[in-house]
Amino acid sequence: MWPLQTFLAACGWREDVTFIRLETLPIVQVPDMRNDFMADNKEFIQEETVNAAQAISKWYTVLLLRCHCLRIAFVRWRIRKLHNRIKSKWTPEHLRKLREQQRQVRIQLRIREIALYIVYLLFLNDYVLGPYTDSSLYYFNANLKRTPLLACVYSDIERPWPLVGLFMTASVKETQFNAISTIPQVHRWLQGPFFDALYSEKDPVTGDYTILQYGQVVGGISIGQLRVLPQECTSKLPPQAGSEKSGHFDESVESKLPFGTGNGSNFQWNSISEDSNISDTRRAFFTSYTGATAAVYPAPAFRVVLPHSNADETKALLASIESNAYMDVQTRAVFVDLTVFNVMLSSVLVLRFAFEVPPSGGVVPTSDSVVAPYADTSFNFLTHYSMLAVALFFVLYFLLLLRATRKEGWPVYRRLETWVQVANSVAYIVMWLLRACAGLDFPNIHVASTSPSNFRSYAFMYNVSMRLAAAVCFLSYVRLILFLDVLPHVNLIVKTVVLSVTQVSSFLFVFGLLVYAYATCYCVVFGSSVEVFSTVSHSYTSLLQSLVGDLDYAPMREAS
């Protein structure tokens, strides 16, 4: 019997015409839950629990997705409603006026930025270009070098004004400074034009020797050199050619032994008490020198100091240098260093005459000079106000960049103007770091002192900082052009340049590689006969100069 029948009979159910009569069924006994088999079936319980948890998680995920979709739909409905309200309130003419007002606001803001930036440029020009308001610095440098090169040479018998011969040797053959090719000519130049240029002008009041009326030598005049050790010749040459050689200069083969024909030790490695440690001197910045032969030389040793206030002592020292064979076959470079101070310009001129003695034989003369201001540690607002103003402007623009970064985020660095500002700030910071280092290297020496001084490191470091100052000026004016992009024609040019950066860079790379290929060919063909093609770097520079027509074809015709 079915359990359902018993259950219906117990409930008093009676059969009518629609249902079939059911017999009485036994009453269903409810099982005891204490004896339920699920109580001990842990695996079944865990499986059902996992299924229930998964179902709840799925239901919750679906609910979240539906809520998110409802939120998006609500936002879109709000936006559509807002657009409809705008369309209902603003006509196209009103929208054009609104855009025009916004454009006018941007233009006014940019005009204020340009006006403030022009004020910055005025202070920058006064700070960087102030010393170049006239050509005094140029003529201070050029009158010690250019005039002797352009003037007529003279002989031992007849000598005109002294400064004309600074770059010339006093010889019967009338050899100019750039044409010096032998060691005896170097000695004649030292004892002739060089000596006359230093001691021909004398102040009748103070009795001090001057150069070009206002120039005064600071410290002693240093003559130093670099030597190499003789090496055993291992090449297969005839015995008559010699068994020793002195090759290119290198610190690994540098000679530190005393030498001299007088007593064999006339010239010592550390010959000056103030310059007793040559190694410390060489560790300073900008003490090395690159000569005309492309060789790099460290700071010289075996120095002889000439007093700038005693002409007789200097003349005797120059004569002893020649008599004791200061320059011989082991000499690879001789350097004559002096510093001239101009009180009218408050600047120093660091001048060096170099005479290289390469293994090829002969002498290769070169010279260089650097003008730097005489360091003044005192502060004067009348002369330093522009420096303070420029520094404040850089701080202001840095703070504005930080505010723009906080407001707009990283997209602000996608603009060319931002990167120009960052590069300008980096150049300005490095410029001041170099000037601080140059100030630390400034020699603590009195102007009238005759002890040796080394202004070279200070002057060259300051010169590098001036090149960074030039970069600051250039980038500042580039940024001004970017500020003027509110003008349609300027904006067109700026966008054209920006969009063509990739193509122009590719062209410059290919062009530079092609010029280098030509430079190697010219160096191989004319390297031993034409000076401008003696090395690959010289060849590269000469080929670039030939693009503007600056190339002498006569030596090439002779060599070919």
UniProtKB/TrEMBL annotation:
One Pfam entry name: PKD_channel
InterPro entries registered for this protein in UniProt: PKD1_2_channel, PKD_2, Polycystin, Polycystin_dom
Segments forming domain Polycystin cation channel PKD1/PKD2: 386-556
Subcellular location: Membrane
Transmembrane portions of the chain: 334-355, 385-404, 416-434, 464-484, 496-519
GO molecular function: calcium ion binding
Keyword annotations from UniProtKB, A to Z: Glycoprotein, Membrane, Transmembrane, Transmembrane helix
Primary residence: membrane
Start and end residues of each Polycystin domain: 177-366
Record membrane topology: Multi-pass membrane protein
Cellular component GO terms held in the UniProt record: membrane
Family: Belongs to the polycystin family.
Name by which UniProt lists this protein: Uncharacterized protein
Species this protein is from: Aphanomyces astaci
Taxonomy of the source species: Eukaryota, Sar, Stramenopiles, Oomycota, Saprolegniomycetes
